[in-house]
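Hey, resending since the last one bounced:
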Amino acid sequence: MSPGSLHWGVDKEKFLNGKASPKWRNQSFAYLFNKLQLAQSEGQGIPTIFRTMKEEGCPEPIFDIETESVTCILPAHPRHQIIREQQEIQDMIILEKYREAKDQTKKLLEKDLYNFRSLDLFCEILSKLKSPSDLFEFITKNNIDFYSVNSNTLINFAELLSSLNGKEHIQFTSLANRALSIALSGKVEESQIVKAVINLKKVGEPEDVIKFVSDAISKYPSLSQNATLLQKRATAKMDEAKKCINTGKDHKSNPRTQARAWEMCRQLLSEAERDLNLALDNSDYSTEKEFIQKDIEFLEKMKKTSRKPENR
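The structure tokens again:
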């Protein structure tokens, strides 16, 4: 707000269109600010406001011209309104108003289908409501392009879709697997890696889990002591070892194939044992340690099964 009305020599209509010629109330100040390079070229301020607001996607500036003052109002960018609404939705979640939050989020997504923050809120709400079917319906109805969704949001998709088990939900699992495969091909935040691996273990193949964990540890060395990742990689190797045992016991297999299967089994179990022992050393939670210990006990049984014939 500037005290005083427009200079008598400034045309009001031209001013409102950003095309008025400059007039100064105080020529000395204008000269001083230009010399100090604290002002732009003469008469460029208003056109700059119009141009910048347009370039940034904001509504046009509003000028309120009174006899006592001139006020310039710069309306906020539409995305800031979305941010405010997202904060309101978050408050609804905190207060357990999940149905209201769900309806409000769907309205936001109607305006911007690929707003990742709105999508994350939607997943959070549906998780609270234990309703993965709503997410499945939303994705299929809107024909969501997973390549237009960021990796971390895709991991949230996968987590919710894979929360139901059973053959009747195989379409959910299939969609979760697709979301994960695309997510893992992009950039995944370090904080989301554990969540990704847990979901990949549910819907993916063991070799996918092994590769992803190994690549993640290579990229983020600090994860080399993450108990959850080490346990998931170990159990994935144990799953692969089970396949080797099945092949080794299959009398229809070629003897050389059987021998190689037992060799691979022993190698996988040796690697899994190292991961589990390291996971046990780095785990800070008693419950997690119990699960790891059970995996170790099961691994010992598998090792007995996989011993060379002369040692059995």
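The mean pLDDT is 88.

Sorry for the duplicate.
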